[in-house]
Give the backbone structure.
Amino acid sequence: MIFKKATLFTFLSLLVAPFLAYSEETENLFDREDLPVLEPTPLMSQETMRVIEMLETIHFKSEEITDEAFDRLIDEYASRLDYNKLYFLDEHIQKFHKKYAPMLSFQLRHHGNLKTAFEIYEVYRELVLNRIEWTLAQLESEWTFDGDESFVFDRTEEPWPKTKEEADSLWIKRLKQELLQEVLNEKTLEDARDHIVKRYKRHLRNIKEFGSNEVQELFLTSLTQMFDPHSTFLSSTNFEDFNIAMRLSLVGIGALLSEEDGYCVIKELIVGGPAERTTNLKAEDRIVAVAQDEGEPVDIVGMSIRKIVDQIRGEKGTIVKLTIIPAEASDESERRIVAIERDTVRINSSRTTAEVHEIPLDDGSTMPIGVIDIPSFYGDTEIDENGNRVVTSVTSDVEELVIKMRERGVQGIILDLRRNGGGLLEEAIEMTGLFISRGPVVQVKDPYGKVYPHQDRNPKVVYNGPLAVLTSRYSASASEIVAGALQNYGRALVIGNESTHGKGTVQQVLMLDDYVLKKYLSKEKAGAAKLTVRKFYLPNGHSTQRHGVASDISLPSLDQVLAEGESELENALAWDQIQAAPRFVERRMKDTFIEDLTKISQSRQIQLEEFNFLNERMDWQQAKEDLRTISLNLEERKKILEEDEAFIEKMKDIQRELANLNYESEEIKLDSVLRDEEQNEAEPEVASVEPEVEATADPNVEKSQPIDPEGELALSSQDSEAQSSEEEEEEEPVPAFDIQLRESLRIMVDAISVSPNPEDWRQPATPIASTNRFEKLIN
């Protein structure tokens, strides 16, 4: 029951339940006279027509929007407004279709008329205000938590309520759930009331501040995302917020933020940024409060992104404390506080790192295997403090580390792309070229069917020995191109989850100022459309879209439970294939070679205790993921909490024992990193701010394993209670134990034992799959 964006993002933004007696101040909250008049402008009409034209001509699909699609737009828009189907009734939706569907296509396509969007929103706004008044009246009654009721927290797939009475019943359960969450989060009833009242009043203010630009953006984004989940419309106001967020990623905490159903959601951590360096934040974590250093936390649920950014930004070196609901939380009562020192993104912190692991062999000796962790495909030129031009490139960094590893006598290398979400296409191509002599790496297709092969033209090969690529469901975009190309050439084994993320598309931001008549721009700026315009294909012609890159050898991991792939996103573009790149001949690893390596690995997975440990954790997490209802009985929830906490402590103890089995390793550092370390040692030491963590999470676990998907105990209780900082400090640290990497290292040893001759691994690779040699390994 992991609360992804498709589950509980509406909890605290729209549906919180304050205990609040009616007063003159309360009644004033619902004064309709101060509601803004919402209406479209002539510029909005122009933007609407241009966006429709772009979707039909520039978007990769380039399909005409049919009358049926415009009719479906009404449902998409209503669902975007009322995500959990608690405000609109079924009769509202039917009336919308009857009233607006017949002329919607004509009005939007030929006139850009947004009347439908604004009138539906007006109905929604009135329903929200009425429902809030009803809620306040209900909350004056007594509440108990001793029944056998349960709450369905995700109603996205449920039908719209048929009657107001049915909606009332849903709301009563929702209010009870909200109150119960606060009680379980160690608040007295009075404190819970005060806390929710403040948030609730702010939500009312936000409803009143919701402007015409936001209505336009919601409606047009509902339209663009019917084409694919990555295409959006940004109104002029929110395009400025988008730019602010981009700047924040470089000069604040190093995080890209977005608003989803009232929550501020971390969409991406900039590698090397302050937020990423804490290792206590992840993509899809939700920020619910912000505090300045020692100040009181300010609840930000329902607050606009612009205001949240103002709260988080600050002077370099100052402290901001974020209260988050972890992405993997199984209940929203779990909270975690993370303290971050505001800073710029450190160049060297975002770069590739490497280690050489010594893997024990049966004869008592060890085999050195190198692991290169590549966080992204970066490449940039900056001016340092001394005015010198500094060039960073993932290709040059990987080349330097490979050379150092060769000097240390590694017998094989693993490229770890498990947390690599992509980056610069040219860097991905050039880095692939370090391991192949030359040839096509990726093909890019535009909306008009034109295919552009991208080649590695440099015959230089830095390493032609045994190679593997370690991937996960988080490996996306450019990292999928690298893994897929090396697999196509038979140059590397691909090990990891069954497949990678599956994002095989390219987006482009199109400024509408360039497409709208100048007379409409005299008083206001136009917005922008971010549209999917191209698609990636591997050298063999297979798209990476949706299917991703399938592993040669699949390993279990928590990622396959927690991570959401492209295929799970609504309206994701389909997989397809084109012709192989000119003069490309696919040479994959021999089937017998892969099959026998898989058989050996599966035998270990049955025998080794670490896989029993992993499977138990995965089963527990999957059970939480599968839950769709939650008890509203206080004692039952406490019992679940105790059981979950006991399980988590048990897993921590087992991991502490297993960590004694970690292989010996040596870190290999880039020359630039070594120079920085020498410089820092010469400077006076400044105390750094370590992250503070509340709830059941152990800060030492996350702090010690920034990229370890198995060693990082991604466990959370059904209802997590806050622990004191003293208790956390006394708890024994949980060291890293990366089960997936350990097995990948063993697989590399197996593969090298079968094909020890580097010539077997050269391009084109023809590794030996000797039955006799494998029988020795298996037996």
